[in-house]
Design brief:
The protein is built from 12 helices and 10 strands. It is of the alpha+beta class. The strands form 3 sheets. The chain has a 5-stranded antiparallel sheet with strand order 2-1-10-9-8, sandwiched between helices. β5 (220-221) and β6 (227-228) form a beta hairpin. α1 (13-24) runs antiparallel to α12, α2 (69-84) packs parallel to α7 and α2 crosses α8 (186-195).
Length: 386
């Protein structure tokens, strides 16, 4: 793997000051900020793994629970690969892969039940399937098959294509579809097709116990697991699914994510001597443009809501977690545990922020103000302090 040239870390003192204040105000115990620009990289750790006085300091290679970054780094990228191989046409109905999505309900009179056959893979990726945002499957389910069975039975809340609603449920089903289309488990497929070619050696589902000491703990779970969560996925639905799911479960480091971002900026080429092509530039362009466009449903029918989303990816909005300076061509994603990555192909930069803001409790949402401030400070350093 070709190493990154170093980007001068002293340029980002203002961004570090924002993070330092956030740690002091207990927005999160520590963080790793990674900035890539024009092929160079700076990785800046700060703080500790927990609030304990004797807690280990955050290191550049500290591993974080990436939460919903799983949706883009693993699931969406796997979908791009399978689309290119003809195994996952974007406009193929979900029911082609998951017949139980419609078969029990194909005689229903309710229009939303009848519309289930219209839900496509594209709808799942664009979060326009009409499926609900979230469901506490873990309160009843005790294994992956139970979660899938319940997800397949959830009623639509909107007609497909009508409204954008960010949906964990949709990505749970998308993960299952990817496994059926590839005939491999999601973790095996991603390791073989994405992580290994990119040299992402610390990125995986279900990290082995010997590396747990490098993992930033997440929540003190007093309700469900009755223990401090460390080395196992924070998301309860992903946990009952065995730690491998389309919506959550991935762990990784800032350095590994930087390799992923560099591949995306390079038009899908791995940063290696053989320059393996992970995905094609046209596929990246299709998945990262704003989707869906506003379109009419006919006379007397409302238009679909326009949305600042790509396929799998989020797009800058107003206000945005990526601050004020990323271009409209940018794309990124957030993770519930306090993670994010944003890529701007127009400006040739990316910003990765990894924290464990859910430690010791998910009720702490101070990161909402920190994210845009950090991104603004990074961009201002890149554009005013060459």
């Amino acid at each position: 793997m070709v190493p990154f040239p170093t980007l001068n870390p002293e340029r980002f003192e203002q961004a570090r000051a924002v993070l330092r204040t956030a740690v002091e105000q207990r927005a999160f115990p520590g963080a790793v900020l990674a900035v890539g620009h024009q092929g160079k990289l700076a990785v800046l750790p700060l703080g500790r793994l927990t609030y304990a006085d004797d807690a280990s300091a955050v290191a550049p290679d500290t591993i974080y629970d990436l939460a919903s970054l799983t949706k883009v780094v693993a699931t969406t990228t796997a979908a791009m690969i399978l689309v290119e191989r003809g195994l996952l046409p974007l406009d193929r109905p979900v029911a082609f892969y998951l017949p139980d999505f419609i078969e029990p309900y194909d005689t229903a009179a309710d229009p939303l039940w009848a519309a289930r056959g219209e839900v496509t893979v594209r709808h799942l990726l664009a979060h326009t399937s009409g499926l609900p945002a979230y469901e506490q499957f873990f309160l009843r389910a005790r294994e992956k098959s139970h979660v899938i069975e319940e997800a397949l039975a959830l009623p639509l809340e909107e007609a497909p294509g009508r409204k954008t609603l960010y949906s964990d449920v949709g990505f749970i089903l998308l993960g299952e579809i990817i496994e059926r289309a590839s005939k491999q488990s999601l973790d095996v497929f991603c390791e073989k097709e994405i992580f290994a070619p990119l040299g992402m050696k610390d990125t995986r589902f279900n990290p082995p116990q010997p590396v747990w000491e490098r993992i930033a703990p997440t929540e003190q779970d007093n309700e469900f697991r009755k223990r401090l969560v460390r080395g196992e996925v924070h998301d309860e639905n992903a946990w009952v699914m065995g730690g491998v799911a389309g919506h959550a479960g991935l762990f990784g480091t800032a350095g590994d994510l930087a390799s992923f971002c560099r591949m995306m900026l390079a038009g899908g080429k791995a940063p290696s001597e053989d320059a393996a092509q992970i995905v094609q530039p046209a596929t990246i362009a299709e998945f990262t443009r704003a989707w869906p466009p506003v379109r009419s449903f006919g006379v007397g029918r409302p238009a679909a809501e326009s949305s600042p989303r790509g396929l799998g990816w989020d797009k800058p909005s107003e206000p945005s977690s990526c601050g004020r300076h990323f271009s409209a061509a940018s794309y990124g994603h957030l993770g519930f545990t306090g993670t994010s990555l944003w890529i701007d192909p127009e400006k040739d930069w990316f910003v990765i922020l990894l924290t464990n803001r859910v430690h010791p409790s998910r009720t702490n949402e101070a990161i909402r103000q920190v994210r845009p401030a950090v991104h603004d400070a990074v961009v201002e350093a890149l554009t005013t302090n060459p």
